[in-house]
Structure formats: C-alpha cells, structure tokens
Amino acid sequence: MKRKSDSFLNTSISFNPWHFLFVFLTSNTLLSYFTFSLYTKLLIGILGVILPFIFATCLILENRLKKKSPPSNITDATTENEKLPIKLWLLWGFLVLFTRFYKLTSVPSWPTSDEGIFTTMALDLLKKWNWSILWGEVRFEPFLIWGLGGFFKIIPPSFLSLRLFSASISIGTILLSYWASRQYFSKLTSFIFCWIFAFSFWEFSFMRFCVPEILIIFFQFLTLALLGIFIKSKTFTSKWFFILLLSVVAGLGFYSYINWLVVWFLITSILWMRTWGKKIENRKYLFTFIAVSAVLAFPWAQARLSPGNLTYIHASFEPTFLLNSCFSYLIGLFWDSKKSFPFGPNWGGMFDPLTSSWIFLGIFYALANVEKKLLALLSLGLVVSMLPGILTNYLELHRITPSLPFWIALAVLGIKSLFPDQTKRSYVWLIPLGCISLALNAYNFVVPYCDVSRVPPERQWRSVQYEDSYKILKSLSTETGPLYVFTEFNTDYDNKTLNIAVYPFDCLQNPKLSKASPQWAAIIANIYYAPYFINKFRNIKFKILKSNRTLPQPIGVFLIPVSEIPDSVLKNWIEADQIYRNTNIKMKNKQPIDTFGQFSEYFSTLKNKFQKDYFLTSVYWEKYALNQFLDHDFKSAAKSYQNAIHQGYPAAHLYYNRSLCLKLSGENDESAKDLKKAVNIAKNALFFP
C-alpha cells in the first residue's frame, strides 16, 4: 500500500508500510518487554506510536479526500482459486495440535479458583442433572456447566479431562475461524486470519482455561460463518434455511456468556444495513432473525431480570472515569496487561508487538482502501464489542473477547498492505513472520505466564498449596491405591480446585471406587490442628503445604493410616465431609441477595452430633463462624469461635480469628488477649520452628 501526497506539509511524501512497521515494531517491543521509567515509556509512546500514527492517518485521509476511495478489495481475486500448498496445511495442523496438547496438565500447572467453581458445579451434575439458567454467585450462563457436565459423563472427571475439554473447544473454534473467514476472504487471507487467531496469546489462554469466555468466541465465529453463507445464498430455500439456522444459533448464544448481547446487536445491525431501504420483502429476514432469536433467548432474559441476577453486572459496569477505562484497555491490549492477569499475560500486552504493529497498519489500510459502509461497520464492531470492558470499573481483557475477530481482521489487512500481491512468493515472508508471532506468544504463555514468582499475590488465582497437596496425594495413590481425601475440613469455601484433580483416586467422590479399601486417609486442614492429630495417631505423616498467600490461613496435609482410625471416627469424618461438600455446592450457587448465614442451616444437624470428636466440633463452629464473619456479623462470629475453642480443640488459629472478630467489634482489650494466646499456642506447637 503506497500513497503519495503533494501538499501535506508542502512536500512530497510516500507512505511505505514497511517503514511504519519498523517504527511500530521497535516501539511496541520496547513498551511491552522492557522495564523503563514512566517518563521513558511516555517518550517512546509519543515519539514511536502516537506521532507516527497521527502522521500516517493524516497523510492517508488527505489522499482519500482528494480522490474517490477505491472499492473494498479484501478478497483478492488473484488468490481466490489458488490452492494453498499441502505442506503449509500440514505445518499449520501440526503446530495447532502441538500447542494444544503440549504439557497439557503442567502449563499452567494448576487451575484457577474460577475453574474450581465451574468444575464443582459440573461434578454435581453427575449425580443429578440441573437445567438452571444461571449459575454461581455472580450468575454465569449455563452452557459451560452443562457442556462440562456432559463431557465428564463421556470422559471421567480429572485434571486431564478438564484440560481436554478446553483444548477440544479451542480446536473447534480454530476450525470455525477459518470457515467463518472463508465466507468473506480469499483462501490465503482466511489462512492468515486463522493462523493469527490460533497462535495469539488470547487463544493460547483459552486453550487451557475452562471459563465461559471460551464459548462466546466459538459461537461468534459460528454466527459469522452462517451470516456469510446467508448473504451469499441466491435461492429462496437456501436463504430461509440459513437465516433460520443463524437465528437459532444467535438465540442460543445468549446461554454462553453475558457479552453475547454485543454480538447479537452487531449481527442485527449487519442484517439491518443489508435489508433496510430495499424491497420490503427483504426485511422479513431481519424480522425473522429478531423474532426467532428473541424467543430462544426469552428464558435467559427472564432469569437475568429476576431479583439479584443483575447485582454483579451493576457493580461491575460503573467505570470511575470512562476515558481512563478506554486507555487502560488499549494499554492492556497492546503493551501491558499485568492488571488483567490471569485473564491476560503478565509480560507485555494481549497482542505481541508484531501483531500489534500489523493492527496499526491494518487501520491505515482500512482508512485508505475500505469502502465507507464497510469501514463504518468495522468501526461499529470494534466500538460495540469493546463496551463490555471499557464500561466496567477494572481491567479484565476477557470481557472484550467479542472484539477479537475485528482486531485480527485489522492485523490481516496490515499484512495485506505489506504483501499486496499475496502470491506464492509471499509465503517466503509470511511463514517466518507468522512463526515469530507464534514463538513470542508461546514463550510468553509457557514461561512468564506460568511463573508464580512473577505474579503479585493479589493476582495469583492458582493455589500453590493445593498443587503441592495434589502432588503428594497422587504419588501416594500411585503406590498404595485409592485414598480417602477429606477436602472440606478447612474454611476455604471458594477454591475447590483440588476436588477435580483428586477425583480419579478419591473414594469420597468417585462412585466407581465405592468398593475400594483405602490404606490412607488424607485431611486437608489448618496446620494448627497438627498437635491434635500427631498426639492421636502414631504413624501420621504431616506436611505444611507451600504457600503463595492465596489462602487466608496456612494449610497442611495430614496422612493417616486407615488402620489406625476407629471405624466410628472414620464414619463420622465421611458423614461430615459429605454434608460440608453438599453445602459448598449450594454456596457455589449463592445468589447475591442470599446471606452466607443461610447456608449454615445445611450442616446444622452436625451441631451436637460429634461432641466426643474435638476436631469435628471445632470444624463445625469454625465454618459457622466464617459464614457469620462473611455476613459482617462479627460479634456472633466471635461467640462461635469461642464455642470452637471451648467445645472443640483450642487451636491457635481459632484464637487469632476470634481476636480479629473482637477487634472489628470494637472490643480491643479482649482482642489483644486472644491474639497473645494465639501466638503462645503457635510457638508451643510440636511442628512450629
């Protein structure tokens, strides 16, 4: 793409995209991967990005205004019927499969707490199916839970099957991306689009992430493909078939994620632009689309509008300053997305420097060459698809996933400006450039993204403690067979990532192991219960788990020979664990209008049931107190912690928790006494250094 101006700044200037690529690539690399002072970053940003961008934009717009804009030429006729080399497809297929299955369960090495929530609800579907529309405390759409629950019926639950589910969705989405782009672009252009999407950091994170956002891009490409086929259809029958199919998919998309609203709006806008002002009979396709998709979405809308189901949305969609939010998302996309981790990299932006530079060049290409109506549609798509992010009050890049196809389309246009002929000779340059982008994103994902030491504790959603526990339990189960894994005797009600990991060898979860005779029982509990277990069981093994400060209190794993546990005690432990486990599932579906105290009723039958078991008694009151604490009823929580101390085992952390509740209640003197007791008990503990 070359444009020449005779009057800009009274001089003759040529626009050469390669020159701007060099400038942008240098600047983006410095801003993304190097640590500079704020002043230096501003200097690089102004001189290396903003000024060149403004300069090029003015140059291009001046040329466009002087003469009629040429028609859009996104689909190059010279490559429309050209077959791509089979070696290129084989290379692409190998890289897709390799990146999707390379170190599937070790990169990253542990699920996030959100994934633990979704898997907990999906595991419950194995017992009894549930057709609820909205799930979880923040009210997520159901397709992820239903899909994961159905997947577990085919492939037994495990950490591996969790990652296989995400990898399968990723591969399906990649195939859809090519099919969708093929409806609008030539074969080579579609291949480039698919390559950039498949090996972007965005899709790299989705291939190992089990979150609702992985479905929205799947449905988005599916609707774009059906829309393209509908537009190109010539016969009456095919047009009606594909508009109905498009309507059904668009209606079902509402059950994937809340952000589907913007995708539906964009599809509706495209249909309106193509039908309005033409023959009135053409408008029936638009009305059909709206009617059918609205009918299918009605149960979702009804559920969303029910009391409490928009509370989380209202709390999030209140930006403190809209312009600041826009800048935050642009910075996160192109240069620095640490504040969005783990929904983005912690080294550089969501797009690598090369892809970012292609996007900038793509904007120039669109301004110079794309027909005005199509340019307006592309602009509308970018702005609207960014709204779920820029209207919120903090950075979370996965919220703007609907914008991904538009950014990649711009990157494709940027490459087109560098290689306007797009013939076989282009492969000599396209393949190395594509591999550079792939290598940057692969390294970013495998190394910095997975390096726990590089992530601030408040952004670390992967529990090092539970990962450490899993390694211990897996090693023991390999040697001795299935285990009893008691994961519910601690107050971490939120992070249940350990449950899915130990499912294959946990007799308490896996019904296929009901006839097994475990040799060991593992209890995951607060480390300050250690003296109780050490004194009670002679051959106990105990380890304080690694910590990354993601859990409120230190956790340990207690390994006890089943032969040393009295049958009555083991029976009580199993009963209590199952009740707490079922309560936790109820809490996972807590609505914002519910109080945490309501869920204490689900285990209230245990109040006086295990009076001779001091450990279970303390656990009961500890959980009871936690719910009161979460409801900000600090005085009642202090009384419950006192019951845990007096009726159960007086562990150090119980005194500390009571001290905190008393302090929050304004009883500073009593708080200080309990804090002193907590410190003394901890120092005298057998395991304390």
Structure description:
The chain is mainly alpha-helical and 689 residues long. The protein has helices spanning 17-33, 38-66, 77-80, 86-101, 113-125, 143-154, 159-182, 187-198, 201-206, 213-232, 236-252, 260-275, 283-304, 311-316, 322-334, 353-369, 372-390, 404-418, 427-446, 464-480, 497-502, 530-536, 567-588, 614-630, 634-647, 652-664, 668-684; strands at 4-5, 13-14, 484-486, 520-526, 541-544, 555-561. Helix 21 (497-502) links the parallel strand 3 and strand 4 (520-526). Helix 1 (17-33) runs antiparallel to helix 2 and helix 5 crosses helix 6 (143-154). The termini are far apart. 45% of the residues are buried. The model is unreliable at 1-12 (pLDDT under 50).
Estimated radius of gyration: 29 Å
**What characterizes the major β-sheet?**
4 strands, mixed
Low-confidence runs = 1-12
Strand order of the largest sheet: 3-4-6-5
> How would you sum up the global shape?
elongated
Mean pLDDT: 89
Strand content: under 5%
Name the descriptors.
689 residues, mainly alpha, 6 strands, 60% helix, two-stranded antiparallel sheet
Overview in brief:
The protein has 689 residues and is mainly alpha-helical. 60% of the residues lie in helices and 4% in strands. α1 runs antiparallel to α16, α8 (187-198) crosses α18 (404-418) and α16 crosses α18.
Helix/strand layout:
Layout (H helix, E strand, L loop, with lengths): L3 E2 L7 E2 L2 H17 L4 H29 L10 H4 L5 H16 L11 H13 L17 H12 L4 H24 L4 H12 L2 H6 L6 H20 L3 H17 L7 H16 L7 H22 L6 H6 L5 H13 L18 H17 L2 H19 L13 H15 L8 H20 L17 H17 L3 E3 L10 H6 L17 E7 L3 H7 L4 E4 L10 E7 L5 H22 L25 H17 L3 H14 L4 H13 L3 H17 L5
Helix pairs in contact: 1-2, 1-16, 2-16, 4-7, 5-6, 7-8, 7-10, 8-18, 10-11, 11-13, 12-13, 12-17, 16-18, 24-25, 25-26, 26-27
